[in-house]
Amino acid sequence: YLDDGTGYTSTEQILDSWHEEGIENSHEILKALDFGFEERISLAELTMALENELLITKNGIHQAILVCFKKEIKHLLEKVDQVIREKEKLRLDLEKAEKFKTQ
User: Fold this and answer.
1) Which of 33, 37, 15 is nearest to 24 (CA)?
2) Model confidence, pTM
3) Which of 47, 52, 62, 99 is the most buried (most CB within 10 A)?
């Protein structure tokens, strides 16, 4: 994972991740986006910068990809929230059953 739980990551982790995915010019990309190489990078800021680049290019395919990924991420986050709510309900139901059983 890129995020260490703080919302930030090292430049090296981003470069390694991109290289693993076949992005050859990752140093140039970070430089073009005005990110330094000695600092930790906010993943939210990086995401926003990349998203802005996709929107500026006016490339319909890139914009469609961005929309699809954003929709999929939103869907997955909603599913995670649903599972968390279901787990909490099951925990509460189990606690009620255990209380009832001990009475």
Assistant:
1) 15
2) 0.71
3) 62
The per-residue pLDDT for 2 is 85
pLDDT in tens, 61-84: 988 998 999 999 999 999 999 999
Of 55, 46, 52, 60, the closest CA to residue 13 belongs to 46
| Cα distance between residue 18 and residue 30, in whole Å | 11
Taking a C-beta distance cutoff of 8 angstroms, is the pair 43, 2 a contact?
A: yes
DSSP secondary structure of 90-101: HHHHHHHHHHHH
- 40-62 per-position pLDDT tens digit: 899 999 999 999 998 888 889 98
* Alpha-carbon separation of residue 50 from 7, 24, 46, 66 (angstroms): 16, 16, 6, 10
